[in-house]
Amino acid sequence: MLDFKIEFNRPVIVGKETEYMQLAISSAHMAGDGPFTKKCNTFLEQELGVGKALLTTSCTHALEMSAILLDIQPGDEVIFPDFTFVSTVNAFVLRGARPVFLDIRPDTLNLDESTLEAAITPRTGAIVPVHYAGVGCEMDTIMEIADRHQISVVEDNAHGLFGKYKGQFLGTFGAMATQSFHETKNFTCGEGGALLVNDPALAERAEIIREKGTNRSRFFRGQVDKYTWVDIGSSYLPSDILAAFLYAQFEQSEKIQSHRENVWNLYQSSLMDWADAHDVQLPHIPEHCEQPYHMFYMLLPNLDLRTKFISYLRERNIYSVFHYLPLHLSEMGRKFGGKEGDLPVTESISDRLVRLPFHNGLTSDDQEQVIDAICGFQF
Ligand SMILES: Cc1ncc(COP(=O)(O)O)c(C=O)c1O
């Protein structure tokens, strides 16, 4: 990691992480699905009101599980926003899917739902919206279209734990949703994730896929007297040491979320006038969305200014970063036919977006330095 006075991200201990990891070690249950994994699963189920939550080794792996669960076959089409992390798409391409990339809305940077219906064909196997920065996609429209065409929705909610759309938690709309606990997320254990299973018909098979294709979970519940290989699957469950770390973070969820809310609000209130004066766009949170304060980004007028802005902050020891490159223009995306100009909103946003330092240890002094530096930037 580069050494900056004000880092973009820093995972911090917020509660009993070390104590719980020691406990997981001394209780001799270091493998997956130990007591802390169960506590994490129950926490997610109860807080969000989902039928089944399964901790996984990453959001990437939860996405891979969802593609297996939906029986995605070679040649199936799966619909994604173009502006997302590689894993959202790669998890389905691994099963042989052909990605169909949609452009994003210029306000929330989420999949543009007005283009969704036209992208559906008889081969469409799934729709995978991403709640960018934890701000909800237009789920009413997306679910109505998906239900009418009987296509499953998997919400990539890597950024959005505790975000809401029209009062309902993100991750509870689709048949399934995926969470990330990577070190850049609000809640972390270094690397980790979860699969939320809202469709009860998928719950048992989800356990099997996560446990190397075996019915070991049924065995542990005493429902079968030995366990065996029953389906395809892989090893998608994290060590209980990681779950111990994560559970300690969950216990501090109010503290974490309220700190992050303060960080976000300070950036917003301090930069609003400056942004207006310089044609810089700050995040748009629709009234019917509650955000989980995952990230603070800004859209600069063009790529040249964005490049200068990032190096200007670096010279002042402040680490700001850009985000996703348009997937249709990546090496893999071009193999699927992507070319310049196909998805102009994503292409423009990707060039202009910059994310400011944002983590659970960021102080208001750090933020004041970032804000002062920003306000001194010469356009
Ligand atoms: C939208 C999105 N989906 C999936 C992932 C992958 O998450 P993980 O690192 O937990 O596999 C990321 C990574 O940040 C992401 O931004």
What's the rounded overall pLDDT mean? 97
> Termini separation (Å)?
29 Å
The secondary-structure class comes to alpha/beta
Tell me the overall shape: globular
**How would a crystallographer describe the biggest sheet?**
7 strands, mixed
What is Rg?
Answer: 21 Å
As a percent range, the share of strand residues is 5-15%
Strands ordered across the widest β-sheet: 1-9-8-5-4-2-3
Flag low-confidence runs.
Answer: none
Q: Which sequence of SSEs, written as H and E, runs from N to C? A: HHEHEHEHEHEEEEEHHHHEEHHHEH
Tell me the number of helical segments per DSSP (H or I, 4 or more residues long): 14
- Quick one: how many beta strands? 12
Percent range of helical residues: 25-40%
What ligand molecules are bound, each kind once? pyridoxal-5'-phosphate
How does this model look, in words?
This protein has about 375 residues and is α/β, with parallel strands linked by helices. The protein is built from 14 helices and twelve strands. Helix 4 links the parallel strand 2 and strand 3 (about 100). Helix 1 packs antiparallel against helix 9 (about 240-250), helix 2 crosses helix 9 and helix 3 (about 60-70) packs across helix 7 (about 205-210). The radius of gyration is 21 Å and the shape is globular. The model has no long low-confidence stretch (mean pLDDT about 95). The chain binds pyridoxal-5'-phosphate. The site of pyridoxal-5'-phosphate has 13 residues, from helix 3 and helix 4.
